[in-house]
Design a protein that fits this description.
heterodimer, A: 198 residues, mainly alpha, Rna Polymerase Sigma Factor, Chain: A, Arc Repressor Mutant, subunit A, 11 helices, globular, B: 251 residues, alpha+beta, 2 domains, 4-stranded antiparallel β-sheet
Chain lengths: 198, 251
């Protein structure tokens, strides 16, 4: 069950130093100084995950595109506040992206349209499994998700990809709030160890 | 209802997935992170897991997005960096502080929205409307000032007060949530409490739907603490009851 070191370091390398390109943190530091070329490099490296995670949460392509644009502009605008000592650039950007998507979900206007789409929600595990032929990162995350118990996996994917609050997840899975908190936490601890991050 | 400490630790995972309820629950946990370095470290690790989940969900965006973003970038000024005057020793130890700009921005926007709603909704005459607009502008100036600090604390009567302090302007904005509504004839009064004087800093507006609209207090001096008391309407010259809140202001 426990991941090999090489797997963990491969995951790290994918987020920080892919193919010998300039380190993402370093690029962001240059973005903060108004370097638009550095911004283009950051864009090219992170637009896929930014758009992908927003799309996963919102589902609607045009809304997702709009939110992705806001997020990337926010990265440009606030790069001056990025401090590598406080966490990696990818995490900084993904946190902004996910939060913006969640804000959109929880705003009243988005809620109405989203309810209807609930009917055809596939199980999160299938969605992840769909991504099989994709990148090493994806494969790695999939394998770590597979290492979780069913309920841990469901709780985490409903919360993160589904954009539900833990209270809503508890309601969906018909378990107590305390149980959901524990499952999300235990699941994330296992994921953290499996991915070799944190 | 107060969460027990153990429960609150358990929320670090849900927080890292943005799965706490927006508003009071998120605010409360954010404050808890302030006092709990181990939780902050845990959140940071969980955020890396979330990042991996995001990377695993990568999808090709519409190709035209790139040109649109780059065009917007060409027309958008970047925020100035935070200067060292703002950096406090505690910040470097606590990675969650990285999110403070986001947080204060969100609170600021929410406060302005609340201010506009309360202020303008209650205005009956053009003069009142003008006054409400002027107050909103003054509040907006504090919220958008550089180097604002966001402070938050519970009160002895329950609920909490959030203070946006613009030390450069010697002004602050106070919003509260969860304070009990007072019987008629009583008001919540703010005070600036210094070594040599206690100055009234105005009244909180009446509690509506568990919240009070933002109020501006000016003339903050070095060493002041913000106090809150319950006083007979329409307020008193000096406090007559024990403060339900006393918050030192880092000016």
């Amino acid at each position: 069950m426990s991941p090999s070191d090489s797997d963990a370091s491969r995951f790290r390398s994918a987020t920080t130093d892919r193919r010998g390109e300039r380190d993402l943190d370093d690029l962001l530091v240059h973005v903060a100084r108004g370097d638009t070329e550095a911004f283009e490099a950051v864009y090219d490296r992170l637009v896929g995950p930014v758009y992908g995670v927003i799309r996963r949460v919102l589902r609607d392509p045009s809304q997702s595109e709009e939110v992705a644009q806001e997020v990337l502009l926010e990265v440009w605008r606030t790069a001056t506040r990025f401090d590598p000592a406080m966490g990696g650039a990818a995490t900084w950007v993904m946190t902004i992206a996910h939060r913006r998507a969640i804000d959109r979900v929880r705003s009243a206007t988005a809620a109405a349209g989203r309810e209807q789409k609930m009917a055809d929600v596939r199980t999160p595990h299938d969605e992840v499994a769909e991504a099989v032929e994709a990148s090493l990162d994806r494969e790695r995350v999939r394998r770590c998700l597979d290492g979780l118990t069913e309920v841990q996996r469901e709780s985490i994917t409903l919360a993160y990809y589904g954009g539900y609050s833990y209270r809503q997840v508890a309601e969906l899975l018909k378990v107590t709030l305390g149980a959901i908190k524990t499952r999300i936490r235990d699941g994330l601890i296992r994921m953290r160890d499996c991915l070799g991050v944190g | 209802m107060r969460l027990i400490r153990q429960d609150r630790h358990a929320l670090s995972a849900a927080y890292a997935l943005d799965a706490l309820e927006a508003g009071a629950e998120t605010d409360r946990f954010t404050r808890h992170l302030n006092r709990c370095p181990s939780c902050a470290g845990e959140v940071r690790g969980f955020r890396e897991v979330a990042t991996a989940l995001a990377i695993a969900a990568a999808a090709a965006p519409p190709p035209e997005l790139r040109a649109r973003v780059l065009a917007a970038v060409a027309h958008t000024r970047q925020l100035p960096p935070e200067t060292t005057a703002r950096a406090r020793p505690r910040r470097s130890r606590a990675p969650w502080n990285a999110w403070l700009p986001w947080l204060s921005g969100a609170v600021a926007v929410a406060s302005i929205a609340v201010a506009v709603f309360f202020g303008l909704a209650q205005a009956h005459t053009q003069a009142e409307l003008n006054q409400a607009r002027a107050e909103n502008q003054a509040i907006a100036l504090v919220l958008s000032a550089p180097r604002v600090r966001l402070l938050s604390t519970g009160t002895a009567k329950g609920g909490e007060a959030t203070v946006v302090l613009a030390a450069d302007r010697r002004e602050l904005v106070v919003i509260t949530s969860g304070l009990p509504a007072l019987p008629s004839g009583q008001v919540y009064q703010l005070w600036l409490i210094g070594k040599t004087r206690i100055a009234s800093a105005g009244l909180l507006p009446p509690v509506q739907a568990g919240r009070t609209a933002p109020v501006l207090a000016s003339g903050v001096l070095k060493g002041d603490a913000l106090g809150l008391t319950v006083e007979p309407a329409p307020g008193t010259a000096q406090p007559t009851t024990k403060p339900i809140l006393a918050l030192p202001l880092p000016v």
